[in-house]
Amino acid sequence: MEESESGRGVASATISNGIDDGANGVVAEGDEEQVVTPWEVAGKDGGKIDYDKLIVQFGCQKLNQNLIDRVERLTGKPAHPFLRRGVFFAHREFDKILDAYEKGEEFYLYTGRGPSSDALHLGHLVPFMFTKYLQDAFKVPLVIQLTDDEKCMWKDISIERSQYLARENAKDIIACGFDISRTFIFSDFDYVGGDFYKNMVRIAKCVTFNQARGIFGFVGEDHIGKVSFPPVQAAPSFPTSFPHLFGQRKDVRCLIPCAIDQDPYFRMTRDAAPRIGYLKPALIESLFFPALQGESGKMSASDTSTAIYVTDTPKQIITKINRYAFSGGGDTVEKHRKYGANLEVDIPVKYLSFFLDDDAELERIRKEYGAGRMLTGEVKQRLIEVLTALVVRHQKARAGVTEEMVDAFMAVRPLPNMYG
Amino acid sequence: MDAAQTRDSLLSLLKENGIDSVTYDHPKVLTVDEQAKHVGHLEGGHSKNLLLKDKKNRLILISALTSTKIDMKVLSQRLGLGKSGLRLAPEDIMQAVLKVPLGCVTPFALLNQSARSVTLLLDEGFKSKTQVFFHPLTNDATSAISPNGLDKFLRLIGREPVYVNVEEVVVVGSEQPPDLARYLVDVTGDNISKEQSAIKATTVQGDKPELSQGTNTPAKITVAAPKSKNKSSSAEKETVRSTSADVQGTTLTILNELLSAFQKEVTAQIVEKQGQEIATLVSNPLKQRLEPELESLLMAFKNTAYTEGFVAGMASRSATR
User: Fold this and answer.
1) Is residue B20 located within the same domain as residue B161?
2) What is this model's ipTM?
3) Distance (Å, whole) CA B45 – CA B126
4) Residue A209 lies in a domain
5) How many CB pairs under 8 A join A and B?
């Protein structure tokens, strides 16, 4: 029996600008349901996102321990902290990818970014860090789509500006440590055409306007550019979109690491795939990265105090964490020692669970802090160390990315060693 | 040669070796401000000199322009001594080692054998002055000497002059090893002859260009300068770009990272668990600390090498025979 792909269509009251910075998002008054679309994320009554509910809403699967163990077995190395800690928590047919890998069949990775600003924050890095781990662990090629056209349309910026942002973002992406011998980065304005466009049309023919409206919430006032965009994001799911990499092969599976708000695009893609003779892409999905102010806060590119940026100096990191990171600790030292910290809402501990590699140390911190024996200041101090190391390492790598390197990553070229 | 050197023996030494100096007599002064009353009007780099000691009783003589800000906490970290590893040396040590009275700390005091294991750090600000001023082993005079003359004097006594940016706030962390730690003369000074310590100082200094060059391994081939967003935030102030993926640089960088991480771990472990198997205790956290850094470095290296090949390939296609 075919699994239900579309789940319950997610209704969204209005489409706002890009989700990346969450600015200008308008949530309908008296919203009963939580809203998760590629352009808007809001918890019920402005609260936390209920991820279990979301899985049911969308109709994807929870990523369980069996799969994680299997990944470790197959790759021969410990699973990435994001897997172990449940940051990547949902999937569609990830098990089929593992089956294929076990049989020696080839698959490739596909992820992307909407280049809406030149400031990237840690939340933006999360999918890329995970994708890099997948690339290294499974030794597979990766295509990265920069949807400059999407941002041009949704954020109403000029084509030139969006292309510029795409290249700037590419540098930060490259700095995450992708292997140039296995990675193809492309921007829509550069690459759309040829076989890619043919796939776009094949996909578009499978989706009615009404379906698109149901999935993405388009309204009569939306311009037709927006309506015709989804096939652009869907096309990279199929190997024939990249003849320079896969020739005419249709049998190479695709795994898409992304944040869960991208699920609608790929539900649509998975519905279309069998109708055009292609394999359905698999998905592995992450939670949203919380803002410094807490789960109900939104990270906004215009308010720099809500996030740690990859351009932040060590001093700025110290200030931001100390001043803005929402603490679940007690109001006073006495209360804290007595009742412990509320780990559910504490941001420093949450951030550590993303970025502190050592499981034992994280566990110890959670235990001690939860019991009130460890103070917020100490947790924040450790977080500052961890984030500073990460950010400084990123900046170093970023400084080494030249225009020529970006050109090389983005060149339409064969990758002879992409499975080596 | 255990007797204290004097002003006269110093000035004779300078004269005999063709090092020009002019000495100004004045009443005994104990502070920089008092000294300035008498010689402050003279053009050049007036100095303040601090003798500092660390927890292992190593001594560091910091000689800087009076206008240079000295932050002990920053220096302590840059020397790899932690946040508060530096103290002013007490008077008895100053007198025993430098053989000068209070208020008279001066690089010239390194002439004394007893001072052979003192590390000297000079303010790079001295280099741009026509002359620099120090006490000639006595508080009732100030001697002017050119920076070159100072260097010559130091080499005479078997030291290689080390100039650093004293004021610079270098944030030491897992990315940025203590940049001044390499200059700390070993505490087993008894066994280190002057020549040996001079050699050690020379070698270490000689390494410096390669070490700093290697921290970035980019290939910057054409003129089109990539816009670097990290001008202010990069821990390195190096903008040296090699024109090819730098193998030696990368190797040195890797070793540098390795040793710096090892240093950190050993210090922490020794403090906590003396007597246990240090090696095994250190190697795991060491690996954890190092792996992401090295991996990032090597991936950058690989991508750079590939890019060079790519550029060459593109160029060869359009190159006319």
Assistant:
1) yes
2) 0.80
3) 6
4) yes
5) 110
Q: Are residues A179 and B303, on separate chains, in Cβ contact within 8 Å?
A: yes
Residue B2 lies in a domain: no
Query: What pTM does this model have?
Result: 0.63
- Amino acid (one-letter) located at B170: V
Q: Is B197 on the interface with A (CB under 8 A)?
A: no
User: Which tens digit of pLDDT belongs to each residue from A105-125?
Assistant: 999 999 999 998 877 999 999
**Which residues constitute the domain of residue B159?**
7-198
- One-letter identity of residue B220: K
CB–CB contact A357 B288 (8 Å): yes
Q: How many domains does chain B have?
A: 2
Cα A19 to chain centroid, rounded: 11
Contact assignment for A177 to B299 by CB distance below 8 Å: yes
In angstroms, the Cα distances linking A185 to A191, A275, B111, B228 are 10, 28, 63, 20
Specify the amino acid at residue A27. V
The answer to whether the beta carbons of residues A267 and A5 sit under 8 Å apart is yes
Q: Is residue B1 part of a domain?
A: no
Taking the C-alpha atoms of residue B182 and residue A419, their distance in angstroms, rounded to an integer, is: 44
pLDDT digits (tens, 9 = 90+) for B197-255: 443 333 333 333 322 333 333 333 232 333 333 333 333 333 333 334 555 667 667 77
Task: Please choose, from the candidates B177, B171, B204, B169, the residue with its C-alpha nearest in 3D space to the C-alpha of residue B290.
Answer: B177
Please name which of A413, A403, A420, A418 lies closest in space to residue A168, comparing C-alpha atoms. A403
Kindly state whether B207 is in contact with chain A, defined as any CB-CB distance less than 8 angstroms: no
**3-class state of residue B319 by DSSP:** coil
